[in-house]
Specification:
Layout (H helix, E strand, L loop, with lengths): L1 H23 L2 E7 L6 E2 L1 E2 L2 E2 L4 H4 E2 L1 H13 L2 E7 L5 E2 L4 E2 L1 H8 L4 E2 L7 H4 L3 E2 L4 E3 L1 E6 L1 E2 L16 H28 L10 H29 L3 E2 L6 H6 L4 E3 L5 H8 L3 H11 L9 H11 L3 E6 H8 L5 E3 L8 E3 L2 E2 L6 H14 L1 H12 L7 H6 L12 H37 L1
Parallel strand pairs: 1-6, 1-9, 15-16
Antiparallel strand pairs: 2-5, 3-4, 7-8, 10-19, 11-18, 12-16, 12-17, 13-14
Length: about 425
Amino acid sequence: MFSTVQFATLSVLGVALFSSLADSKEKLTVVMVLSEPYLMLRQEDGHFGGTSPYEKYEGFSVDLAKVLSKQLGKYLIIRAVTNYGKYNETTGRWSGMVGELIEGTADMAIADLTITDEREEVIDFSVPFMQGGITILYKKVTESAHPLDILSFLDPFTTDVWVVIIACYTVLTILYLITKHIRMKTSKPEQNNETSFSLHLLTITSVIFTIFLVCIYTAQLAPFLAVPTCDLPADSAEDLARQNKIKYGMVRSGSTETFFRESHFDTYQQMWWTMSQNYELFTNSNKEGVDRVQRGNGRYAFLMESNSANYLTERKCDLKTSGHGLLNKINYGIGLPLNSENRKSINQALLKLEAEGTMKHLVMKWWKQKRGGGACLMDMEMGGASLQLSLKNIAGIFLLLLICLIFIILVFGLEWLRSYRQAQDQPSTTEQ
């Protein structure tokens, strides 16, 4: 009884000591924005997480906040806000994370917050912790690259493969008939119903060869009968600017809009003029833009930051980014109030995490692994194409068949030689 009470007392004292140590740490308020995979509601067994921020949220920004808390020796309090920060010309004030930093209600902002000249006038940034750029997100158009017809079942193999297959079965049939015929001529009448060892080998070889071919053919046939995909006809900024069939847009009042609005490059100026004439092309969030891309079936392309786009294409196999590189280069940094005393220590912590490989590990975790990452890996490797198998791809099976046939012919030769000698010895035995 005494030991139980003592243990309970020590436990209470331990909890109290831990709480006092936690309370003794300097607390910093960190603002974030719900954006995959930076900040997401934690979901376990179909239910969302608890009430405390670290139980309620998960993502790249949350993990980065945890490791920074250890590096800085400070307790970081997470708070979600509605947007990154928009400047209201009427009131002359900033909203979102930038506004929180300016007003002093937050000590730092951890998110995919782009470092821009406009923002650097009102807040400070840490050293960049991630790079990216603007890319074009579009939906793969479902359009048959192999028109189906009555002979589509022949598509998995090239013509030379089919010719060799027909030749192999012809040789197998002729060899079987020859072996059977010679067997009947050289053996005694009572032995005609007995199957020779060479015929057994020939039958087994034919069955195994057929099984191999059927397995390869079946595996190769499915992609040809499925409806393949093809790329968007306008796969670059120049292509989009030159055409008028595919509409394109972006999130309004974001860094992407700022880039196009202030760009002096002719193509981007033309694209901005086209979008500014139809404000319906803009969206309120990346999610709204992605939904419009999926509904548009190739008639709408979305201009967004590459890191967010890459996260989507890892999980939504019907989406793809432009194959012509990034439109620009951007850096993400941790937002801080002007002249923040924490800037130097945060920069040192970020550089250390980068050198240790922690940042690379976090990117791999949230882009490639968690929340369905890697679901479209096979689709990206195949590139959506179905390639015919040529003779060099499956030459091994025909080489194996040739070796087996040579062995069967040798066995048959030995059997025939034995039968011939027995036939020669038979008269001698009869005379005795």
